[in-house]
Protein 1
Amino acid sequence: MGTSVESLESILEKNLPADELNQVWNILYGENHPKGNGIPVEAQEIADGHNFELKVHSFNAALEQLRPPRRVKVGLFQHAHPVPTTAPVLDQLNALHKLAERAIAAAALTGVNVFCFQETWNMPFAFCTREKLPWVEFAQSAENGPTTKFLKELARRHKMVIISPILERDQFDVFWNTAVVIESNGEVLGKTRKNHIPRVGDFNESTYYMESTLGHPVFDTSFGKIAINICYGRHIPLNWAAFGLNGAEIVFNPSATVGALSEPLWSIEARNAAIANSYFSCAINRVGTEVFPNPFTSGDGGEPHKDFGHFYGSSYVAAPNGSRSPGLTRVRNGLLVVDLDLNLCRQVKDKWNFQMNMRLPLYADLFTRASKPNFKKQIVGRGLSEDQSEKDLTNGN
Amino acid sequence: MGTSVESLESILEKNLPADELNQVWNILYGENHPKGNGIPVEAQEIADGHNFELKVHSFNAALEQLRPPRRVKVGLFQHAHPVPTTAPVLDQLNALHKLAERAIAAAALTGVNVFCFQETWNMPFAFCTREKLPWVEFAQSAENGPTTKFLKELARRHKMVIISPILERDQFDVFWNTAVVIESNGEVLGKTRKNHIPRVGDFNESTYYMESTLGHPVFDTSFGKIAINICYGRHIPLNWAAFGLNGAEIVFNPSATVGALSEPLWSIEARNAAIANSYFSCAINRVGTEVFPNPFTSGDGGEPHKDFGHFYGSSYVAAPNGSRSPGLTRVRNGLLVVDLDLNLCRQVKDKWNFQMNMRLPLYADLFTRASKPNFKKQIVGRGLSEDQSEKDLTNGN
C-alpha cells in the first residue's frame, strides 16, 4: 500500500455514518476504547507549524476505595528522517535534535509525563545497507553521548521521563540497540537493550549488534513502572511475559518496520501483549521512506536499490482490558498522547486472573526440557517424523 | 452490542466503495487475506435450508521445489443451542446431534478435511448456573459416549477428522473439559483437555472441573499435525507456544465467550498465536443467548437473572503470515470453510525465524526462577515495593 493510504481511521471516518462508525470502533478497538480529549492551543500550533499530527486520547479505570487514581500521560512520537541520509552525520543529528525539541515541547504543553521515541530515533535506519560507515558514527554512549546529554536537559526542564532508543557504543566499542531511560529530574535511570535481533528481509541487524545480556529490567520511574521491548522483541510473547513478571505497568515498543513485511502483524502483537500481561503497551513505528547513498540488495533476487520500503507509522496504545487507541497516520510525523490510569492494570488482573491461572511451573518445566537436545515432542498418532510425513521427492526415496 | 450488530464485515461491505474496502481489508486482515471461493450448490442449499451462514475462503502459500503443496480444508462450525434448556436432556442432545449432522453434511460437500465444533458443543453452556443438575448428565465418556459414537460414524462416512469438544466424565467420575479427536477412519485418535480454567464473570468452570494433566498433545492426523487449545487457554501465550514446540501446524480454539466480557480480545489472541508460533489458528465461538431454568447471580452485585449474555460467534481462521479470514457473523449459526496450505507454516518460519530467535533457554531459566517463592523482580530505580509505591490510605500510615 505504500503511502497511498493515510490510515484505517481516515477511511472509516470518511465513509461511515456516526452510529455505524461507533459500532465498528466498539468491535475493532473495544467498547471502552479511549475517547478524544481537548488539545491545548499552543501544542496544536507547534504541531501545525511543523507538520505533525497531534492526537490526544484518554483511557479510564474504575475508582477504588484504597488507591487514588494513578493517572499518567504517555507521549509516543513517530517521525520520518528529516534530512537526506547523504548529509554529514552531524547535520543529520542536529536536524533530529531540533525535531525532537519541538515534539517534546508540544508533549510538555499537553502534559505528557513519559515520552518515547521510535527505535534508533536519532539516525536513519541504515541496517539495510550492511555498510558500517558512516552509520556507526551515529553510535553513542548511552550514559554520556550527545543525544543523552541533550535529552537530560529537556527531561529536567519539562519534568518528563524520556525514553531514548539509540545505537549504543559501549566502553569496549561494542554496539547495542539500546533504550536509555532518563528520569524526570534529568538523571539517567538506566538502560535496556534489544533482546531479539531480526534476520529477515532488509533487517540485517545481526551484522551490527548482538542480543541483550541485561535481562528484562523494569524501571521504577516517578510515573510508574515501565519497560522497553525494542522492535523485533514484540514478536516473542515470552519476552513480553518477562516484562510482566518483573512488574511492568507500561511497556513501550519502539520500532522501525515496513509495510510489505509486517503490517498485518502490527495491530495485533503489542495489543495481545497488553491483554496477556495486564499492562499498557505503546507501539511506536518510524514513518516515511529513507533513501540511502549506495545501492544494496535485499537477498530476494531483486535488483539493487536504495531504499527498503515505507515505514508505516500507525503508532498506538493498547490497554490491559483489550481496548486500544486509534493509530497515528501511516504517512506523517505524529505525536500520540494518551492519558491512562495505571490502576487499570491490577483491576484487570483481579478480574481476568491470567496471572493466577497461567501455570508458570508447567511452562518452566516444558521450556527447560525443550531447551535441551534430547527433547521429544508430545505427538499422538501416526508418530511419523516431520520429514517422513512429507512426500520425499529426492532420488534416495 | 448484543445482537444489534450482525458483523464488522457487513457494516464495512455496506458502506465502503470497493477500492477503499480492499484497502481496509489489507490493513485489517493482511494483504494476503484469503479470497472467497466458490460454494457447491448442494452445500449452499443445506445452509439456506437450515438457516446457517456458509463462507468459503482460501489461503495460498508459495510453491516449493521439494515439497508438494499440502492443502487442507478446515471447517469451523458455530451454533446456538437449538432447543430450550428446559427440555429433557435427551431431547437437547438429539437436537444437537441433528444440527451437527447437517453441518457436517454441508462441510463434506464443501470438501472439508478437518471439522471442529465450539467448546462443549453438545450441551448448553450451563456453567453460569453453578448447578450440577441436570447439566452433568450431559457429561460422557470421551472414548465411548453417545456423541463420540455418533461422530465416529460421520467421520468414517465422510473421511473427515472431527474434533469434538465435550464435557467428559472419566472412569473415576471426574469431569473434564475435553476435546476428542476422531480420525478420518472413524477411530478415536486421542483426547486433550482444557489447560487453563477461568474464574471470571459467569464462567464458574472451576466449580465443575480441574486443569488438564495431559500436557500439550499434538495429533498427527491424516491431514496434518493439529492441536486443540480450549477456550480460556487462548489468553495464555505460553500455552499456545507449547503447542507450537510440540509441532502443531493447526491449532483449534473451540470457545464459548460473551460480548460484554471478551469481544475486544477475540480478534487479537488467536491471530497473535498464529503469528508468534508460525501455525494456523482456528477460533470458534458459540453464538446466541442461552436462557436457563433458574435464576442465578453473577457475583457483580446485580439482580438474579437467567442468562449470561450474548455469545457473539465471529469465528475466524488466522495464518502464520499474520493474515486472517473474515469472520462469521455475531448473530447466526455458521460454517466457515478455509482452504489452506500447511507448507505456509515452515515458509513463514524460514522467513521470520521467530523459532530461531526466541532464546528459549533464557525464558526457561526466568520462568523457573519466577516459579519459586524467593523470586526477586528485576527492578531498576527507586526500588519501592508495589505497595509502597502507592499512596497508603490506611490509618496505620
Note: Chain B touches chain A through 105 residues (CB under 8 Å).
Protein 2
Amino acid sequence: MKNRNWILSNRPQGAIKSGDFTREDRDMPVPGNGEVLVRVLYLAMDPAIRGFMNASGNYAAPLPLGAPVRGVMLGQIIRTGPGAELSEGQFVWGFGTWSDYVVAPASQFYVVEADADSDLASFTHVRGTIGLTAYYGLLDVGDFKSGDTVLVSGASGAVGSLVGQIAKIKGASRVVGISGGTAKCQRAVDDYGYDFCIDYRSGSDLNTQLDTILPEGIDLLFENVGGSLFEASLNHLARNARIAICGMISRYNASNDQPGPSNLWNLVVKTAQVRGFLVSSILGDRARTQAMLKSINEWISEGRLKYDIDIREGFEAIPDVYNCLFTGAHKGRLIVKVADPVR
Amino acid sequence: MKNRNWILSNRPQGAIKSGDFTREDRDMPVPGNGEVLVRVLYLAMDPAIRGFMNASGNYAAPLPLGAPVRGVMLGQIIRTGPGAELSEGQFVWGFGTWSDYVVAPASQFYVVEADADSDLASFTHVRGTIGLTAYYGLLDVGDFKSGDTVLVSGASGAVGSLVGQIAKIKGASRVVGISGGTAKCQRAVDDYGYDFCIDYRSGSDLNTQLDTILPEGIDLLFENVGGSLFEASLNHLARNARIAICGMISRYNASNDQPGPSNLWNLVVKTAQVRGFLVSSILGDRARTQAMLKSINEWISEGRLKYDIDIREGFEAIPDVYNCLFTGAHKGRLIVKVADPVR
C-alpha cells in the first residue's frame, strides 16, 4: 500500500504552472511515539499555501523543495503510536499535506465532534479556521461595535461571506462588500447578508462609489485583498476607524513587491488603527475557540449563517483545483475531497 | 497701531518659496463677545502647518489664500471681550496666526501656570503639545510596556527627543533612534537617552543595521517620518509589535503621492498593530492632560527630561525660519519669538 503525495518540485514564479508539482508515491508512514496516522479526507485550498511555496515563506517557514505541499485538512485517525492521546476513528483538523495519509504528533490536531454522517467538509470552513477567522477578525481584532458601518473586501470569498453575515447578526448599521464580477456581488447580497456589494471589475471609480455608498465613512474595514482596493478604502475611513487585515490575496502571486498604499496619512487624520492578525493566535485557547464555535453552530442551526463549499473530487486534481483560487473559478470555500471516511 | 501678518498668497508646490507669503499690515482686531485679544509671544514652526497650506489640507481644513498662516502659539491676553472667561495678563497657548495679535474665542486657548519670568517658550514644546504628543503617543497609543524595545524615527526632532527619554524613564530595555547626520545622532545618544542612533544618511543599508542593532525585533515603533524609513522598520517588527504613527514629515513637501510601504504584509505575519493619532484627541480631557503635564514637570525638575528649543528672533524672519524645518538646519524645537511679555 502506497501513499500518494504532491511534491513541490519547483518554486513557482507568479502563477502556478503544472511543472511546479510532481506526484510521488511513497511508503505508508508509521506513527512513532505520540504520533498518529491520519487519513486525509478533505484538503482546503488556502491562499496562504501559495506563500509557503516561496523561498521566503510567509507567516510560516517556506516549504522545502521535495516536500509534500502543506495545508489545512480534515482527516480521520487510522492508527495511533505509543502514548498518542487520540483514538482511532476520531475526526480531526489541522495542518496536513497534499497526501493520502499523514503522520504527525497528535498534539497538532484538533478533534471535532463529528461522525461519518456529519458535514465533514464544514470543519475545513465555517466550523474550522475560516469561521474562526471571520469571527475573531471582525469581533475581536476589528473591535466591532453595534451600529458600525462595515466594509469587507473579498466579500463573496470564504472568509468574507461569513464576515458579512456575522456583522449583520451583531447589529451593524450597514454592511458593504467589494467583490469581482456581477455574479459574485449578487451572491454577496442575496446569500451573505450584504446591504450592497461593489463590483471592482465594473470599471466605475471605486472612490466615487465608496463616497456614494458610505458617505459617513467606514467604521470597520475587514481587509482580505490589499492592493488598490485597500488604498481606495483608506480614503473613506470614519473617525477612529478600525481595520483588521486578514490577508492580501492580491499579492500572493506577485513575484515582485508592489507599491503599497500611498495614503497611510489617513490613519493619522482619522486616528484610525490597523491590526494584522492570524487565526493561529487564538487556536491555542481551546475554551475561547470552543465558545466561538458554539455561537457559529447556533447561527447555522437557526438558519442565520449560510456557507458555501465548493467540493472538487480526487487527489489527482489538486494542483489544477488550487489554481482556481487565483482565477476566481469557484463558488465559496474551495475544498478537495480526497477520500471517504472509514465507517 | 497696526497688526503685522504673514499671509498665504500662493499655495506652495513642494518646497516653500519666498513668494508664497506676503506681509500685510492690518488694523488691530477687537475682541467681540466671548473673545480675547492675544499678543503673540512665541510661534511654533510645526511640520503640520505645511499641510494646511495645501488645497486639500491635512487633518485640518486648508488655509484659505489671503489668510494669515495658522500655527500653535504661546501668547498673553491683552484685552477681553464681554463674557470671555479669561483675564488680562494671563498666558495661554493654542492656535494662533503668524501675526502680532490674534482675536479668537477664549474657549480655544489653554491657560498655563506661568509668569513673565517663566520659560515661556517651553509651553510651545515640552510643556505643551509636543510633550503631550510624546507622552500620549508612546505610552497610550503605543501601549508601551516596561521592557519593550523601542525604535523612534526623527529621534533628534522635537517629539523624538522626548520620546526616547520617556521610554528610558519608563523602563524600555533598548531605545534606538533614526536620524539624519552624525551630529543629530550624537545628540540623540548624548542628550536624549538613546542607546543607539542610526544615521540614515550614512549610506549603510538600514535593514542590515536594524538586523544588527535590534536582532530581537521592534516591540514599539514611534513613527515620525514615513517613507523608506518606515518601510524598512516594518521588516523588523517583533511579534505583537505596536506602531504609533505621529506624522510623516518626509511626505509633507511631496507634491505627488509617493508609493507607500510595499511590505504591510508584515503586520499580518507579526500580528502587529498600527495606530495613527493626533494629540488633539486628548486635549479636550483637561484632567488627563494635566496629569500628563504633571509627570512631565516632575521629570524636568528631576533633571531626567531635557529639551532643546531653537529660538529665532523676529516677526520678519518667520517664512525663512519655517523653511529650516525641512532643510534640517535647526537644533530642537524651532520657535520664533515675536514679542516680549507685558509685565
Note: The radius of gyration of chain A is 20 Å.
